[in-house]
Amino acid sequence: MAVTKKFSYEQTAAATLSVFKPSLEVSVRFPGDISSATSVTLTTPGTTMSLARSSSSSPGTTTFAGTQTFADHAALNAAASAGTYTLAVSGGGSNFSTSFPSYYDNNWAVPRFTNYDSLQSWAGGQLQILWQPIPDTATGDDVNFTLSRANGSIFYATPSGSLSSSATSFSFTFPSSPGDLYHGTLSSTRLYTSVTAANSMRVSFYKKFEVRTSVQRPTPSPVILQQPASKTVDEGRSTIIAVSDSSINATYVWKKDGVVITSATTGFRLLQSQLLIENARRSDAGAYTVTITNAGGSVTSSPATLTVIPNLRPAAFSSWPLTPRTVRIGENYSTSAQVLSNTPVTFQWYRNGTLIKTTVSNLGVNGYYHSDTLSLAPVKESDLGVYAVTISNSAGGDISPDFVLAVERTCRITNLSILTALASPGETFTIGYVVGGHLTRNGTSLVIRAAGPSLRIFGLTNPVDDPKIELFVGTNRKGENDNWGGTTRLANAFSSVGAFPFSSPLSTDAAYLDYTAGSNSVRISSADGGIGSVLAEIYDATANVNSTATTPRLVNVSVLKPVGNGLTAGFVLGGSGTTTVLVRAIGPTLGAAPFNVPGVVSDPQLTLFGANSTRLGGNDNWGGTPELASAFSQVGAFALPADSRDAALLVTLAPGSYTAQVSGVAGTTGIALVEVYEVP
Question: Coil, strand, or helix at residue 266?
Answer without folding.
Answer: coil
